[in-house]
Amino acid sequence: MNSVRIIGTGSYVPPKIVSNDDLSCVVETNDEWIKSRTGIRERRISEGENTSSMASKAALNALKAANVKPEEIDIIIVATATPDNFIPSTACVVQDKIGAVNATCFDISAACSGFVYGLNIASQFIRTGYSKTILVIGAETLSKILDWSDRSTCILFGDGAGAAVVTVSDRNKILSLYSGSVGSKGRFLVSKAVPVENLYVESNTNDNHKTTMDGREIFKFGVKTIINGVKKLLEDAGCTEKDIKYIVPHQANCRIIEFAARELGIDKNKFYLNLDRYGNTSAASIGIALDEIVRKHLIEQGDKILLIGFGGGLTYGGMVIEW
Ligand code: UT7
């Protein structure tokens, strides 16, 4: 089996900043409620950019950091719940935009766990020797699937993209992997695609396609996933919390992280958070946070970090990485 490592990261968020105060003009809410219940101060919202555009910018940043040319990429995986189109995949659109002419391209749908699912899939392709260099992107334009009249969901989310280049290594740097899904709880976070309307079924124009969520159920699931995932990933990597420089969780809600950190007996400052500035960007969130850590030089070669994601599906996944 080949060894695997991440050699470059990149991210992109749209320039438009929307504060909690801005949202209080859209729905009945206020800065104090949003900050105290979620930790979010502001988020980025696309002004016309679609998912492939943000994904391509994050990808080019990651390729530059990795010193890899687009034509050297064997596979592009885009994790997204908000593709530009049903067909072609966002990955194929990104391929064309960045000139990755030799890549096989496909999207995956795992909501907020998408980026770690993508890294996991990439590492399997590399381990088996099928591929050498893979671009994994988590990218979302969640603003286009939100119900902007529902204050319990629209205040949480933002747009953006994170990317990583994964390649063959002389020593394995992915020390443990973890993933799973609970389809029976899928109803707790839903964004519908088009309903069945065809020659035989009349259209139902009342059908709501926007995102709906049972916040409390997702909250409980998030806390449980982080607790179980961190324990399992540490055990499988043969290390303890003390060996980990940062835990990079899905950026959903700082109270989810506080609950999990307390239960795990881990200092909450070990969890890297940027959700105050970006909100929850679903599949992009861990990728954006990882890139920020790298660009701020918060980790050095040899440091270990733990990624842990959870979200719609319901899905969960994580990994311990040595940098
Ligand atoms: O990637 C995964 C995506 N999903 C998540 O991460 C969501 C996880 N869940 C959460 O983050 C939290 O459940 C929320 C932040 C969504 C909600 O927080 P909560 O503490 O569970 O609040 P709640 O739903 O129990 O609502 C409490 C009150 C309600 O009013 P009443 O019934 O007590 O009068 C809500 O109507 O807060 C009200 N409320 C708001 N008030 C001001 C709900 N949303 C808002 C709002 N502004 N935006």
Automatic annotation (TrEMBL):
Pathway: Lipid metabolism; fatty acid biosynthesis. InterPro entries: ACP_syn_III_C (IPR013747), ACP_syn_III_N (IPR013751), FabH (IPR004655), Thiolase-like (IPR016039). Its main location: cytoplasm. One of its GO terms (biological process) is fatty acid biosynthetic process. Keywords: Acyltransferase, Cytoplasm, Fatty acid biosynthesis, Fatty acid metabolism, Lipid biosynthesis, Lipid metabolism, Multifunctional enzyme, Transferase. Residues 234-323 form the Beta-ketoacyl-[acyl-carrier-protein] synthase III C-terminal domain. Belongs to the thiolase-like superfamily. FabH family. This is Beta-ketoacyl-[acyl-carrier-protein] synthase III. The gene is fabH.
